[in-house]
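Risk register update: the risk of archive-format incompatibility is retired. Evidence:
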Amino acid sequence: MSTMEITTRINRKWLERKPKHELASIIMSNLGRINLFAEHGEVQSGHDRPLAVNVTGGGELTIRIGINTLAFRFNRQEDNTPYDEKANGFKRLYRVVDAVEFAKKVRTKLCREEEDGSTPLTDLFDKVCRNAIDNGCFGVEEDGRDKKV
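Archived output:
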């Protein structure tokens, strides 16, 4: 099965044309996908893989994240590291000590069904699909027919 990864490929000439403040913004927004210390062709283990969203030739949208990456992200998220005025610094509230158990619980919560059959994951898909349409997705067209859904 072939996989088509949706990524932005850049080259040196493209980078040289960008102002430094824009480059900093690009780097910061993609920090989770940048591995500055990997050797060329080095592949991270499944546990440490960054978040990746792919469209496969087999007709699937796949979302993957390594469990260590998930734990790392949680440990550093803003809600888990509030500013503590007494300590004059940031304080981590919780620390993941077992990435496998944490990932299993996250999976359970992503798939938890409400009374209407929706889950946090289906709610996320609803939101991002609508956002794609609102931002000019070429893969859809307006359908003005009146019909019961």
